[in-house]
């Protein structure tokens, strides 16, 4: 029988960043991935490191700030281990508010806005400027699995966790091949985390559901370029710095469906083109959908899951790219038996009790399935 110090289910950004941190602390880590690494929500994301998004729950502030602060060193570590570049694609975000809702002292004037984004049509939105960065998640998809492997992580793809059996001193993790005995098991299966295969725990399986997001990327024409992320209450526009611009995203409660609907993409494009007209002439070259892991209160679940040797890190909803390095450090501290540097009480996996709450009923969308064209 194989053995490891830690077995992680799920090779998305959360599972792999945690594996990397644990391996860097000398632990033997195996990551089991049902399909391909970094091919679900972590592949589908826009890549904004939106630590200052006014729609974020206030309980996320400390973890967000910590994660944003850790990002440069974390990317440097990944680049060094993988030999692949993961550059920040933008350094600045313009955050829009409906008229009258922006903090008055920081609202940009019309000339200031024109200087930053010459073709912007603000309509009745007001904007503030944030020093917030973004990256292209596809760069991370290429680099992070290589970095984890270079750090000594054993990454096994096409290997679903079939069941887990926690005992007093170990957890036996059943895979399609051989069982693995580990000191700890961590469920990082994103929207699939509540699967009974990943443990039946008391008081309940984690209250997480998939939240579909559709997005599209266009290529700008005629040397047009955009260097700043534009984020409105209804949609966002994220440039990649090379003429590509990603526009997102819908927020939909429809199970594990990942169908791309042309009408939803058309609505996103129309809204974005009203705000920044060069998008109207751009060529669409890719549209897709991904499944955000959403908990009942839209906060992550970080901590022990019903047994002293079983842990969970999921529910990062629309901020999993931002929160990955911070989550990896604090959960690694917990699993290694040290006190985490930030208070994880708001993220206690046991906070949902019966676990029957329907997560998306309380959703306050960054975007919805109908982008807010009326605001523009
Ligand atoms: C459209 C969209 C836009 C987004 N934009 C942003 C953004 O701009 N900024 C940001 O910070 N976040 C963004 N997010 C959110 C972010 O993508 C997610 O929060 C994050 O990727 C979640 O990572 P994860 O590792 O938990 O889940 P995933 O990446 O989904 O990984 C979970 C993995 O677990 C595997 N798995 C499932 N069951 C099993 C099993 N039984 N055994 C083994 N493996 C299993 C799955 O195959 C999958 O690979 C966006 C998400 C979407 C969909």
UniProtKB/TrEMBL annotation:
Gene3D superfamilies: D-Amino Acid Oxidase, subunit A, domain 2, FAD/NAD(P)-binding domain. Residues 359-369 have a biased composition (Basic and acidic residues). It comes from the Bacteria. Pfam families: DAO. GO terms for cellular component: cytoplasm. SUPFAM superfamilies: FAD-linked reductases, C-terminal domain, FAD/NAD(P)-binding domain. One of its GO terms (molecular function) is oxidoreductase activity. This is Glycine oxidase ThiO. It comes from Acidisarcina polymorpha.
């Amino acid at each position: 029988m194989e053995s490891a110090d830690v077995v992680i289910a799920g090779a998305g950004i959360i599972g792999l960043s945690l594996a990397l941190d644990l391996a860097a602390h000398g632990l033997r880590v195996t990551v089991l991935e049902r399909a391909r690494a970094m091919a679900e929500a972590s592949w589908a994301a826009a890549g904004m490191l939106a630590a200052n998004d006014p729609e974020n729950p206030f309980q996320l502030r400390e973890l967000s700030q910590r994660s944003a602060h850790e990002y440069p060193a974390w990317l440097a570590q990944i680049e060094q281990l993988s030999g692949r570049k993961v550059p920040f694609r933008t350094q600045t975000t313009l955050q829009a508010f409906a008229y009258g809702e922006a903090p008055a002292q920081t609202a940009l004037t019309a000339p200031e806005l024109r200087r930053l984004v010459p073709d912007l049509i603000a309509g009745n939105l007001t904007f503030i400027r944030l020093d917030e960065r973004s990256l292209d998640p596809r760069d991370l998809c290429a680099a992070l699995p290589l970095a984890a492997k270079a750090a000594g992580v054993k990454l096994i793809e096409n290997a679903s966790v079939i069941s887990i059996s926690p005992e007093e001193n170990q957890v036996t993790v059943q895979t399609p091949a051989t069982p693995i005995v580990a000191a700890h098991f961590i469920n990082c299966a994103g929207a699939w985390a509540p699967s009974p295969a990943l443990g039946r725990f008391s008081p309940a399986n984690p209250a997480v559901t998939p939240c579909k997001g559709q997005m599209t990327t266009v290529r700008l024409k005629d040397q047009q370029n955009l260097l700043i992320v534009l984020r409105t209450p209804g949609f966002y526009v994220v440039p990649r710095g090379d003429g590509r611009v990603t526009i997102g995203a819908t927020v939909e409660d429809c199970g594990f469906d990942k169908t791309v609907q042309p009408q939803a993409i058309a609505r996103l494009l129309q809204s974005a083109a009203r705000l920044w007209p060069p998008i109207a002439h751009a060529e669409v070259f890719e549209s897709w959908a991904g499944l955000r892991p959403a908990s009942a209160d839209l906060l992550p679940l970080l901590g022990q899951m019903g047994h002293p040797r079983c842990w969970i890190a999921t529910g990062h909803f629309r901020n999993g790219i931002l929160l990955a390095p911070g989550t990896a450090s604090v959960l690694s501290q917990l699993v290694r038996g040290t006190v985490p540097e930030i208070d994880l009480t708001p993220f206690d996996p046991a906070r949902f009790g019966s676990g029957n709450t329907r997560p998306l009923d309380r959703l306050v969308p960054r975007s919805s399935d109908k982008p807010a064209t009326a605001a523009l």
